Amino acid sequence: MTSPSDAARRTVLITGASLAGPTLAYWLHRYGFAVTVVEKAHAPRGGGYPIDVRGTAVEVVRRMGILPALQVAHIDTGRFTFLDADGGEVAALHPSAVAGSVAGRDLEVGRGDLTAALYETVRDDVEFVFDDSVDTLDQHESGVDVTFRSGGQRTFDVVVGADGMHSGTRKVLFGPEEQFHRYLGYGFAVFTMPNFLGLTRELLMWNTPGRAAALYATGDADDDLHAFLNFHQPEQPLGVVREGLREPDAQRDLVARTYAGAGWEVTRIVEAMHQADDLFFDTAGQIRMLSWSSGRVAFVGDAAYAPSFLTGQGSSLALVGAYMLARSLATHGDHVDAFAAYERDTREFVTMNQALVDKGGARLFPTTAEALEQRNARLRDLVAMPASTPQPAHSALVLPAPAPAA
Ligand SMILES: Cc1cc2nc3c(=O)[nH]c(=O)nc-3n(C[C@H](O)[C@H](O)[C@H](O)COP(=O)(O)OP(=O)(O)OC[C@H]3O[C@@H](n4cnc5c(N)ncnc54)[C@H](O)[C@@H]3O)c2cc1C
């Protein structure tokens, strides 16, 4: 165990100020490290779709003291209704029954609410540098020399990439994302649109084989809807989504072609996509790295092990991974031992959660008529069940006690 005075001399640069970054910063500050967080956006990114904090991750936010605020922000969605090709009801359930989450314990919050809560806990204690990113990393025996896009140069004991699935830090260190990306066979578009159906705290999802369109009302009838179009695409559409090259017109065209002739209100949703100024398009995929570190540089959250939104576990893995990495750095004086311990104690949990989905096999998004019929039969069975079963992977890691504070 290192003494606080040893730890106080250790400097850490974290890239990315979303979920994993501020969580890691909070715990490292508590353990006496001098922390700098660099974020390429000009402020913590607000808004966005609802995300889940489940199982082991609930304990992380409790230990950070933000559980009560997140419980207030919790989106208490009453109903998840599945629709057939013509908009007829297939089944209506409580959302926790579908997600394997635990009602009354697990949380669903706006992504911006979670980012803001994490940032608030640590903003006055560590250095945040916005509107910047890492250009080069040069490791040597006594540290990592970092050049920033803004032109500055500094040296840190350790650098951690918490800059998401398309991590620029990972690219600087290891090269192109392709070598770590496991494509899962779907493309998706998320955006907000007017609440033309007057929905209140409910989720509607329309499916045909290989196509889904969802409308999520997280608020009242006069609040905008989160629209979500998820579709099967056997080969990754590299022409429309590629590292560093995003082509919104090509993305909109692909979605419009995919949903041509669709029933229910889908045409209206696709029209709204064309008007949306907050369209987010990507393909569903996972990041799988054989090792989460190299020398003095490690990765955490989506940058190291994005499980994809299809598992609903990305936020939880980011929170738990950051907690575990900080604890390992606090309990091991040497970064090599610390990174090894982080990986040894966290990898099984990550692997279990990444295994919740396979290529083209997402439970909610069947790609054939037969699989859709089977899913619908399962949903009707769930309606008849008295209580939902929690997904064991969500709580598979028992969080160790924090290291002593500095
Ligand atoms: C549509 C959608 C729906 C989702 N739904 C769910 C859900 O229901 N449940 C769930 O648990 N998860 C969900 N997720 C996943 C979840 O959002 C991520 O897993 C989670 O945000 C990962 O957190 P992170 O901090 O590791 O990375 P991110 O949240 O991706 O944050 C990375 C940060 O790094 C910054 N950055 C990027 N590049 C650089 C750079 N070069 N230098 C500096 N900063 C940089 C970015 O601006 C960003 O602030 C969903 C994701 C999507 C896209």
List the helices and strands and how they pair.
Blueprint: H1 4-8, E1 11-15, H2 20-30, E2 34-39, E3 50-53, H3 56-63, H4 67-73, E4 79-83, E5 89-93, H5 95-99, E6 107-110, H6 111-122, E7 127-130, E8 134-140, E9 143-148, E10 153-156, E11 158-161, H7 168-174, E12 181-193, E13 202-208, E14 211-217, E15 225-232, E16 241-242, E17 245-246, H8 248-258, H9 266-275, E18 280-287, E19 293-294, E20 297-299, H10 302-305, H11 314-331, H12 335-354, H13 369-384
Parallel strand pairs: 1-2, 1-11, 2-7, 4-13, 11-20
Antiparallel strand pairs: 3-6, 4-5, 8-9, 9-10, 12-15, 12-18, 13-14, 14-15, 16-17, 19-20
Helix pairs in contact: 2-6, 2-11, 3-11, 11-12
The protein binds flavin-adenine dinucleotide (FAD).
Flavin-adenine dinucleotide (FAD) is lined by residues 15-21, 38-41, 45, 49, 51-52, 133, 162-165, 168-169, 190, 282, 301-303, 306, 309, 312-316, 318.
